[in-house]
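G., the chain you wanted modeled:
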Amino acid sequence: MDPVLEGRAITRHYHVGGGLFRGAKVVKAVRGVDFAVARGKTLAIVGESGCGKSTLARIITLIDPPTSGTLLIEGKPVEIAGRRPSRDLRSRVQIVFQNPHGSLNPRQKVGNVLMEPLELNTDLPAAERRDRARAMLEKVGLLPEHFDRYPHMFSGGQRQRIAIARALMVNPAILVLDEPVSALDLSVQAQVLNLLADLQKEFGLTYVFISHDLSVVRHIADEVMVMLRGEVVERGTRDAVFADPQHSYTRTLFAATPVTALQAIRARVERKASRRAAAGERRPAL
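Predicted structure as tokens:
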């Protein structure tokens, strides 16, 4: 299967500092990274702070161009250096950030938050934008009446659902998830991860999942890529990497990361949802 997203020898260098009598220092944030993700699959990028995973996310989401190398989206090379990506291209890749409270405009009602991407990237009439926004609220487990409420009126988990809904409004092929559940309680993490899995199946989404929490990665990733100082030191299927990590840094990372009871929590959440469905109970998600 051809990859939906592919990177070939991606590098990103930054020039920092410098002055009258000394040159700027070159920081090599990403060094010759290769990756490929098929449609409907999840690539998890893991590593400690400063390893280059967030810089790579900015390249994938077309915020920054690579210094060298080639990024391909749906088989087509992407060139954004010195130019703004087209509307169509921007629509193909969207991002969900770690902190939904900071990424949502507190002065905008949720309905307007969801309609804004359609207003910027499509020519749809206002009535259709409203209909799509209301439908997407329900897709992410919220209620139609939430359309006219403000972000501060929701829990952290609900705000993250709103952020996910906003990212999906323009029908992207690729969703970059930058630590999307790390700020949430474990039980809410499980619900949001279940939602992401359901949406991936429904829309055929390709995920790039950035996380330091290996227990979360273990339950959502198809493939895992481990980065250290801007380079990929290990790559493979989830089962292979977790069962038999080959690089010493990967083994150190695994040993230093506490394993949460996420699987048990997810099972409890699913049992509760099944009981509510059987009883015909309809409640907003947490």
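The mean pLDDT is 89.

Shout if anything looks off.
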